[in-house]
Design brief:
Blueprint (H helix, E strand, L loop, with lengths): L1 E10 L2 E6 L2 E7 L1 H5 L9 E5 L6 E6 L5 E2 L4 E2 L3 E7 L7 H13 L3 E7 L7 H9 L3 E4 L8 H8 L3 E5 L6 H8 L10 E2 L4 E2 L7 E4 L5 E4 L16 H4 L27 H7 L5 H15 L8
Helix pairs in contact: 2-8
């Protein structure tokens, strides 16, 4: 029997493929190893189930995207979670995640938690101005939970953000059926403990899938997920309105005379914190070797 499904988990050389509510344990054909291709959670694949023996993955469909750390493919939406306090939001981490999502054709959505400790209106306004969807979550009233469910419906989603911002708590509020383990924030370090270890796709009761992605806080320079400096501006969507008006086509949008982006920052049309993050990421990108982006 040959069928098509989605890889929902991979462990110890075995891949678990779901199709029509049934999960098959599969091995991958040697051809993938020879091609340097590794089946990844989220992949849509064709597999064969023999009468006797172990099912085998025969082919992997072209991916919409594929992240390396965490290893997950075909994400539709990345919910970037920030707490207003404990830990305090780090704009560079948030903007790095937004840029990474934009670069990989994943829709970034900002989620702000712990509103009982401190309002999130000021930081949320930065991302609303940038044209990103923002959701405010208030556990005491349940505010924002239904909005998140609607956004996650019929999509493959993941949550990202610094440790301790409450990703697991948020997921438990959205889909308590999953009962993901939560960890307390370390007051000494101001961050949380990693409580999950491997990527897995879960079916959501209201439709869609959630990728449980441990350690997903920011992209690592060792992963090869780096953005070239000439492509970075495209990952800041609010720049698009202004870049055609720059005096020079080679403008880096840092501090050049005649730069429409810099002028927009001065006029308050682009948030200063977003531009500061762009400049920091640009400096990092300048040091990336060509082979690291392949």
């Amino acid at each position: 029997m040959t069928d098509k499904g989605q890889i929902i988990k991979g462990i110890g050389g075995f891949y678990y493929v779901e199709t029509a509510g049934t999960i098959y344990e599969c091995k991958a054909r040697g051809v993938f190893r020879r091609k340097g291709l590794t089946p990844t959670v989220g992949d849509i694949c064709t597999f064969t189930v023999p009468e006797n023996g172990i099912a085998v993955i025969d082919a992997i469909e072209e991916r919409k995207n594929c992240l390396i750390r965490p290893a997950v493919a075909n994400l539709d939406k990345l919910f970037i979670v920030a707490s207003t306090k404990l830990p305090q939001p780090n704009s560079l981490v948030l903007d790095r995640l937004v840029a990474m999502a934009e670069y990989n054709d994943i829709e970034p959505i900002m989620v702000f938690t712990k509103l009982d400790l401190l309002p999130a209106d000021e930081i949320a306004a930065v991302y609303k101005k940038a044209g990103l969807k923002t959701v405010m979550v208030d556990y005491s009233s349940g505010g924002g939970i239904d909005e998140l469910k609607e956004l996650m419906k019929d999509a493959v989603s993941a949550f990202a953000g610094n440790s301790g911002v409450g990703k697991s708590t948020l997921i438990n509020a959205i889909a308590p059926e999953l009962v993901l383990e939560t960890g307390e924030v370390s007051e000494k370090l101001g961050r949380g403990r990693h409580t999950t270890r491997s990527v897995e796709l879960y079916n959501l009761p209201f439709g869609g899938k959630l990728a449980d992605t441990p350690g997903f806080s920011s992209f690592d320079i060792e992963t090869g997920m780096q953005i070239k400096k000439d492509e970075l501006a495209d990952c800041f969507r609010e720049f698009a309105e202004y870049t055609p008006n720059c005096k020079f086509t080679s403008c880096a949008h840092l501090c050049e005379k005649g730069c429409a982006v810099v002028e927009a920052v001065k006029n308050g049309e682009i948030s200063l914190s977003r531009h500061e993050s762009y400049k920091a990421l640009y400096e990092e990108a300048k040091n990336i070797k060509e082979w690291e982006t392949r």
